[in-house]
Hints:
Elements: E1 4-9, H1 10-16, E2 21-22, H2 27-30, E3 33-34, H3 38-48, E4 55-60, E5 68-72, E6 81-85, E7 88-89, E8 93-98
Amino acid sequence: MANIFHITTRHAWDEAAPTGAYWPEAFPNDGFTHCSTEKQVVGVANARFRGLAGLVLLVIDPEKVAPEIVYENLEGGEQLFPHIYGKLNTAAVVRVDEFEPGTDGYFKLPGEDSESRA
């Protein structure tokens, strides 16, 4: 199964990592952690985080995630997004990449050159 991705602040991740569990600030209201597939994450970043610095991209192995992952769309679109229904066990995070926008405020995947930006 392909990795899934979650965008958060460096500060939030650094606080959660030693505890063994991560959940975003919106978790109490949403009841899940918003994630994206590799094809979705840049679009999500540019729609919701454009120009925001200090972010990291959590690369998550879904087979290591303890809570249930549900692929769904709760906003009326056709794309299904992975949602983690419970606190993310940090052992499922296989990599943490710095995730800073370019000078134009837009994001690209780490290691992606600027010409292949979606």
